[in-house]
Every structure is written in structure tokens, then in C-alpha cells.
């Protein structure tokens, strides 16, 4: 194929491709797409067709260029070819544009017909819905979402009082009753926020009843207000009335439950159907329901029968009855009202009223008795100005006869009689003065006047009108008061002179901290002048003046805080100050009446010096006593070793190994042995006391068989009893049991007490020992029939080295009872002595049973 033949084909192919590429978008414009893209306008189609023509013209231009490069066709030049190309493109564009317009028009006609049909159907439906909604007995409120604006449809009858204007209709409180408006608002809020449907019956302010229904459809909230027909309205009114009655009954029941008077309700047969809380409390029931179920009656059977027989609807029962409430006799004012279906009653407790009435009578009588015993004359006149009460002081003041006063004279008559007896002050105008006196019955305030009587007495007359009428007259004799004031002033002067001449320093301060008075001793002790302690001087200035003598915090600074304190309770304080001058002052801060405070200072310099000297001497004595104890303890330790040797050698001399002894030698050896044993006992006692004083003695606790211990003690005391010619009688139970204690120390206690009793018991007498168990403790007493002890000796019997040779067979060092007391105290026991001169002595002792921890500690 030649070049000239290929060129037209290439132009045709390019034009076809361009038209296809531009037509494809137009072909895709289906009716559905046109509806979804909001019906694109014809202008858009025109723009596409123009674009298509431009594309055709562009497709022809390459062919023209190609033809220009090839061999030119005969009869056509370049301009002709270009013109034909433009013409052909324009014609093609016009044809395509016409075809597209025709197709688009057909589509638009179809869509218009469809839209007209759909619009007609919608109008028909809307008309039908509006016909249903526009019912005169219904109005619907629609909300779209939580915050959407309300849309209102329909109307309510005018007689309901519902506003026709939308904003006024939504203001429910303006046309619904308050409780109905609040219910509707709460229900709508629950519907819109929580999708909670509701049905209510509400009442308008005109008394009409509406039914309100709230539901949720498709995310929109609907509230339907429906005016009910006659039957439904009547039922709704009955429902509202029932709710109102229930609410009223509940309110009245709550009110009756809150009062203190028992209230009850009975059915036609007289059975309880309801009681309040006070009734429940009165019959001691746990709840009102229990009182009703169990039929607990607050009134007696006779009272209930009396009420049933006498109470009628026209004449309620009213009477005061007595009954027992919580075990106490109580009086009630009972009111019982009978109705068609039963009765109800109330009991008002009048016991307190009766008590108050009696108490008031007793109080009035007491007041009258009190006034009658007053030294101040009192007279009470009633509303008719007649004398109602007077006391003995009134009669004595005016010297009136009891018969005249008992006749209840008029006040004016009483004044005239007193004037005639020359007992009232002389007046220039008697009538005006009397009228002024009687004006108190019309006065609102108390009137006070001074009467100067002819006999020289001065009376303060206080007249006070009563709210119920009448007046009280009080005659206060000021003559004695004047005398008292005179004596008081004299007393103040005497006290001032007394204070000025006291050796103690005294200063009195007011509540503002300023000095009220001071004496010369105060100024001399603190070395200040009279001007520095003048009346009215503040304590701060006084503190500065006394600073050179003493300026420590516990001095005037502390005084200032206590004197100017605002605390309700002002405590007193005492102490001692040592001034820089060497003076030692004892001070006392004493609160006085009227918030005043008194400071007193006593010079204790000499006493303190003497006290210090005594303390130094006492300390020296204490050290000397310690030195003595140390010396005695040391000597005792030093004596024990030679004594042991002496006792050992004495025992050795008694044996046959040394050789036989003559009678005198044996007697001397016995004396040596006995004296050595006594001396060893004394040394051991001193060492025991020294050990106790040092606090290092420890008890060796063990379980002791008390019967064995008593046998051991009795056997060891045999020689001593024979030597003193005394018999020992032990009275003890067969089974004394066991005791946890230190056996050795307990044995020492028993032996020393028995030894002391044997020493003072007369020859041929009996020493009695009684033993018993006091709970777990071991108690015993030892009695002798010796000379006894005086109270002074009894009080010092346990003192160390305390001896009384009177009546004793032998005198000892006076350590036995001291050892006893020390060992008993170590056992946490008790020991005491009972004795009278000439009647012997009894020693009582109690040793407690040691605890298990003590036994374990002793074992360790």
C-alpha cells in the first residue's frame, strides 16, 4: 500500500478513538446515576460535545500535516484541506451533540414522570397522615435526638386549657398542675436520655384529665397528649383521686407516726386495723404491724366497752381514763370518733399535765411560804386592786392588824389608813401622790420610788404590774443598807491599814493588769518606790522596775501572763524566788472576785538558810549511818570467822578425844558454846539485814510441806521452851498442804516470832500458835500472855535494835522482829502486832503462795 492510501486510514482511526473516549462517560450516565448525582445539567453535556469537536479537529490536524509532507493531491492546496477538516469536525460535533441531546431529553422525560408519580404518592400519604394526626383530641411532640428541637403536631380541645402555641405548650408548669407537670418533665427526660417509655394520667389546671404516652421510634422521641373520652376520663379521674387519697392517707399516717400521742383505727367489729408508732411504743410492740396482728390494746376492757356503748357518729367519746403503760399508771384524755366503717381514736397523755398542775400548785404555795418568810415586806394586789397576799414582814412594817388585812382592803383604802396613822411620808399634794402610786396598775414598766418615813426609815418601793392584772409591791428597807455601807467603808479602811502593816508583801491587780493596791512591805522586798507601784501602774512597767532584783522567766513575766490571762479558770500558783540580792521569797498568786488577782510575797530567807543547814546536817547523819552500817557489816563478817573457830574448838573440847573434863570445865565449855551460838545468831541477823538493805538477797523458792515445817520448828524450839518453862500449843488442820516459799527464811520467821513470845511469856504459861490457809496463802498467829506492849512500843517493835527488857526473861539485840518484817516483805506478805498492856501480845502473819514464774526463776 502506498503512503497516500495509509494516511486517510490513520486519520479515521484516530477520530474513532477520540470519539469513543469522549462518549464513554456520557454512556455511563444512566437514569440511576443521574438521580444519584443530582441530575447533571445540559450545560455539562454541551461542554463534553465541544470537547469532542475539538478532539475531532485535533485528529484531522496530523493528517493535514502528513498530507503536507507527502505529494500534494491534485486540485487541493493546504488551505482547502484545513478548511475541509474544520468543517468536517464541526458537522460531526453538531451531529453528535444533537444525538446526545435527544437521548438526554428522553431520559429526563422518563425521570420527570417517575418523580411526579412519587411526589404525588408522597402528597397523598402526607395528607392521609395529617388527617390522622390532626385529631382535635391528640397532640404529639417529637424530638429528634437528645438536643433536637421539638416538633408539635395536632391540637387538644380548648376546654383542657392546653396552649395552642408551641412554646407555651412545652411550658407544662403553666397549664398542668404542679405535680402533673413535674411527672411529665421527669418522664420526658427519661424517654429522651434513657429511652424509657411511659404512660401517665395528668391533670390540667382546669381539672381536665389527659393521658400522656411516651415512646421511642427510629431514634426519635414521641410524646402523645390525648384528651380522654367521658368513660376513660372518669376512670382517669378516679385513678387520680385514688392516688391523691393514698398520698393524703400516707401523709396523715406519717404525721400521726411523728406525734407522741397514741392513735388507732378499728373496723366495724372493733378490731385494730392501724396504729401509729406512739401506740406501738406504748404497748411495747416491735412494729405497728405486730401490734395490729396481735391485737395489743392500750385501753382496758372496761374502757373499750364503755367507748363502744357510748360513742356515736354525732357524739364522739371523750373522757379521761387511766391505764398501765410500761408498768406505770398513766392518765389519758381519750377521744374516739365512730364512722360508717369503724372508728378511730387518740389518747393524749395528761399525766405530765396533772403533774405540772400539782407541781404548779406546790410551787405557788412554796413561793407564798418563801415570801412569807422573807424579811423584805411584800404585798400583792389583784386586778381589782384588793390585797391578795401579804407576808409577816409587811404586817410588821406598817403595824396593821391581821383582821384588817384579811378583809382584803382596797389599795386606796390601805393608803388612806396608813396616812391617817402618820406612817407615810408627808406630801404637799396627797391626792396627786396617791394617784401616782396607783398609776402602777396601768404602767407597762416597773416603778421605783424612795419613801422617807416619819420614823426615820428610808424605803425603796418597787411596784410591778402583773400581765394578768394587779401589782406586786416590795418595800426594801435601805436604812440597814446605809449602815452596812458605812461599816463596809470602815472595814475597807481597817483592812487597808492592816495590809499596810503586814510583814508580807501584798499587791492586787485588776483584770487589765494594772495595780490596784500594794503595801510598803511589797515595795521594800522588791526595792521599788511608791511612785513605781502607784495605783494604775501596768504590770509591764512593774516588771521593768523589778527587773534588777529578778528578771528570770518564772518571775514577773509569768506573773503577767497569769494576771492578764483570758482563760475562764484562773488557777492559783505558789513558788519560791531567790532574788539576786540573796533574798528568798515564797510567792502565791491567788485569783480574787471580779477577775482581780492578788500577789503575796513572804521573806523566807532565814527559814531557807535554816532548812539548808538542816539538810546538810541530815546528809552528814545519813552518811554517818551508812558508814555505821558498813562498819557493822564489816565487823560482822570479821567476827564470823573467829566465832566459827571458837564454836568448833568448843565442840572439839566436848568430845572424848581431848580427854575428860571436870564438872566446872564442862559448865564453862557449855557457857562458851551457848554464848558463841548467840553471838553467831546476832552476826547472821546483822548480815541478813545488811543483805536485805543492799537489795541483793534472793529467796530460794521451793514447795514446802507445811506440816513437816511446823514439826521441824516445834522440835527446834524444845530446848528454848524448856528453858523458859513455857508450853507451846499448835492448832492447825490435819492437812495444811504445801506452800511455795523459801523454806529457810520461813523457818526463821516462825522461830523468831516463837522465840520472842517465849521470852515474854510468864513461866508456866502457854504460847498458842494457830495456823490456817487463807485461800492459797499461809496464815498464822502467835499469842502469849505476857505483860503486853504499849502503843508506842507496838509502833516501834519492828525497828532495828529496838529492845524492851520489861517483862522479858532475857534481852537481845532487838533484831528478831526486824528480821521477821524484812523476810515477810520479801515474800510479799503481811505482819502486824496486836497488844495491850497486861493482856499479852499476838503477832499475825500471812505468807502468800508464790507464783509459778517465781518458782521457775528460783529453779534457774
CATH fold-level label of the largest domain: Heat Shock Protein 90
How many domains comprise the coordinates?
Answer: 6
Main sheet? 5 strands, antiparallel
Give the strand content.
15-25%
Q: Provide mean pLDDT, rounded.
A: 80
Q: Strand arrangement, largest sheet?
A: 2-1-5-4-3
Number of strands: 27
Q: What is the CATH C level class of the largest domain, in words? A: Alpha Beta
Give the CATH superfamily of the largest domain: Histidine kinase-like ATPase, C-terminal domain
Organism: Rhizobium rosettiformans
GO molecular function: phosphorelay sensor kinase activity
Transmembrane segments: 49-69, 81-102
Coiled coil: 228-255
Amino acid at each position: 500500500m502506498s503512503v497516500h492510501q495509509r494516511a486517510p486510514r490513520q486519520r479515521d482511526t484516530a477520530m474513532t478513538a477520540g470519539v469513543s473516549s469522549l462518549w464513554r462517560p456520557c454512556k455511563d450516565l444512566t437514569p440511576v446515576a443521574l438521580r444519584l448525582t443530582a441530575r447533571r445539567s445540559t450545560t455539562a453535556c454541551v461542554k463534553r460535545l465541544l470537547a469532542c469537536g475539538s478532539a475531532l479537529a485535533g485528529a484531522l490536524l496530523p493528517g493535514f500535516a502528513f498530507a503536507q509532507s507527502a505529494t500534494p493531491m491534485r486540485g487541493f492546496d493546504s488551505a482547502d484541506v484545513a478548511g475541509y477538516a474544520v468543517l468536517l469536525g464541526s458537522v460531526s460535533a453538531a451531529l453528535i451533540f444533537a444525538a446526545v441531546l435527544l437521548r438526554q431529553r428522553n431520559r429526563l422525560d422518563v425521570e420527570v414522570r417517575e418523580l411526579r408519580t412519587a411526589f404525588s404518592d408522597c402528597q397523598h400519604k402526607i395528607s392521609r397522615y395529617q388527617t390522622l394526626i390532626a385529631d382535635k383530641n391528640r397532640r404529639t411532640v417529637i424530638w429528634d435526638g437528645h438536643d433536637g428541637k421539638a416538633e408539635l403536631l395536632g391540637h387538644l380541645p380548648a376546654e383542657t386549657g392546653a396552649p395552642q402555641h408551641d412554646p407555651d405548650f412545652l411550658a407544662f408548669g403553666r397549664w398542668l398542675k404542679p405535680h402533673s407537670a413535674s411527672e411529665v418533665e421527669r418522664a420526658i427526660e427519661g424517654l429522651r436520655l434513657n429511652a424509657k417509655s411511659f404512660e401517665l394520667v395528668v391533670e390540667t389546671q382546669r381539672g381536665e384529665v389527659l393521658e400522656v404516652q411516651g415512646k421511642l421510634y427510629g431514634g426519635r422521641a414521641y410524646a402523645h397528649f390525648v384528651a380522654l373520652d367521658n368513660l376513660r376520663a372518669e376512670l382517669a379521674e378516679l385513678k387520680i383521686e385514688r392516688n391523691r387519697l393514698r398520698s393524703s392517707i400516707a401523709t396523715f399516717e406519717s404525721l400521726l407516726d411523728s406525734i407522741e400521742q397514741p392513735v388507732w383505727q378499728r373496723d366495724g367489729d372493733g378490731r385494730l386495723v392501724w396504729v401509729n408508732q406512739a401506740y406501738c411504743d406504748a404497748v411495747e410492740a416491735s412494729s405497728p404491724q405486730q401490734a395490729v396482728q396481735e391485737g395489743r390494746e392500750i385501753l382496758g376492757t372496761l374502757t373499750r366497752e364503755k367507748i363502744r356503748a357510748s360513742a356515736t357518729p354525732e357524739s364522739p367519746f371523750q373522757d379521761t381514763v387511766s391505764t398501765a403503760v410500761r408498768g406505770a399508771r398513766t392518765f389519758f384524755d381519750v377521744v374516739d370518733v365512730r364512722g360508717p366503717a369503724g372508728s378511730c381514736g387518740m389518747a393524749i397523755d395528761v399525766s405530765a399535765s396533772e403533774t405540772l398542775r400539782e407541781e404548779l400548785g406546790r410551787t405557788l404555795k412554796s413561793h407564798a411560804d418563801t415570801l412569807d418568810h422573807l424579811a423584805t415586806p411584800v404585798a400583792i394586789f389583784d386586778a381589782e386592786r384588793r390585797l391578795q397576799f401579804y407576808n409577816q414582814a409587811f404586817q410588821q412594817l406598817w403595824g396593821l392588824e391581821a383582821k384588817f388585812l384579811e378583809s382584803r382592803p382596797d389599795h386606796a383604802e390601805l393608803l388612806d389608813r396608813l396616812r391617817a396613822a402618820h406612817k407615810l411620808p408627808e406630801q404637799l399634794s396627797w391626792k396627786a401622790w396617791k394617784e401616782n402610786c396607783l398609776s402602777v396598775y396601768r404602767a407597762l414598766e416597773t416603778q421605783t420610788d424612795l419613801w422617807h418615813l416619819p420614823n426615820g426609815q428610808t424605803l425603796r418601793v418597787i411596784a410591778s404590774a402583773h400581765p394578768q392584772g394587779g401589782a406586786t409591791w416590795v418595800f426594801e428597807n435601805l436604812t440597814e443598807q446605809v449602815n452596812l455601807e458605812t461599816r463596809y467603808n470602815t472595814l475597807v479602811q481597817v483592812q487597808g491599814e492592816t495590809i499596810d502593816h503586814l510583814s508580807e508583801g501584798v499587791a492586787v491587780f485588776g483584770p487589765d493588769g494594772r495595780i490596784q493596791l500594794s503595801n510598803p512591805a511589797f515595795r521594800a522586798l522588791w526595792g521599788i518606790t511608791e511612785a513605781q507601784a502607784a495605783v494604775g501602774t501596768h504590770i509591764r512597767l512593774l516588771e521593768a522596775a523589778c527587773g534588777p532584783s529578778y528578771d528570770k522567766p518564772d518571775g514577773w513575766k509569768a506573773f503577767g501572763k497569769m494576771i492578764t490571762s483570758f482563760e475562764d479558770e484562773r488557777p492559783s500558783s505558789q513558788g519560791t524566788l531567790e532574788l539576786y540580792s540573796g533574798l528568798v521569797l515564797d510567792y502565791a498568786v491567788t485569783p480574787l472576785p471580779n477577775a482581780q488577782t492578788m500577789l503575796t510575797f513572804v521573806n523566807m530567807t532565814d527559814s531557807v538558810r535554816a532548812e539548808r543547814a538542816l539538810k546538810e546536817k541530815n546528809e552528814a547523819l545519813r552518811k554517818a549511818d551508812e558508814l555505821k552500817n558498813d562498819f557493822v557489816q564489816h565487823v560482822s563478817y570479821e567476827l564470823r570467822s573467829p566465832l566459827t573457830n571458837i564454836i568448833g574448838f568448843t565442840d572439839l573440847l566436848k568430845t572424848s578425844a581431848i580427854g575428860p573434863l571436870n564438872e566446872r570445865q564442862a559448865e564453862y565449855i557449855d557457857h562458851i558454846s551457848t554464848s558463841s551460838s548467840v553471838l553467831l545468831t546476832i552476826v547472821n541477823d546483822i548480815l541478813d539485814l545488811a543483805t536485805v538493805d543492799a537489795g541483793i538477797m534472793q529467796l530460794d523458792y521451793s514447795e514446802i510441806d507445811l506440816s513437816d515445817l511446823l514439826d521441824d520448828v516445834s522440835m527446834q524450839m524444845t530446848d528454848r521452851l524448856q528453858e523458859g518453862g513455857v508450853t507451846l500449843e499448835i492448832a492447825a488442820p490435819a492437812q495444811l498442804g504445801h506452800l511455795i516459799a523459801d523454806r529457810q527464811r520461813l523457818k526463821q520467821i516462825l522461830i523468831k516470832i516463837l522465840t520472842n513470845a517465849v521470852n515474854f511469856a510468864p513461866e508456866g504459861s502457854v504460847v498458842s500458835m494457830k495456823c490456817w490457809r487463807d485461800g492459797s496463802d499461809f496464815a498464822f498467829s502467835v499469842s502469849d500472855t505476857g505483860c503486853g506492849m504499849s502503843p508506842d512500843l507496838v509502833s516501834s517493835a519492828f525497828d532495828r535494835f529496838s529492845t524492851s527488857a520489861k517483862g522479858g526473861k532475857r534481852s537481845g539485840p532487838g533484831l528478831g522482829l526486824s528480821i521477821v518484817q524484812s523476810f515477810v516483805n520479801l515474800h510479799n506478805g503481811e505482819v502486824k502486832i496486836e497488844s495491850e498492856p497486861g493482856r499479852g501480845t499476838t503477832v499475825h502473819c500471812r505468807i502468800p503462795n508464790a507464783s509459778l514464774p517465781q518458782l521457775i526463776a528460783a529453779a534457774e
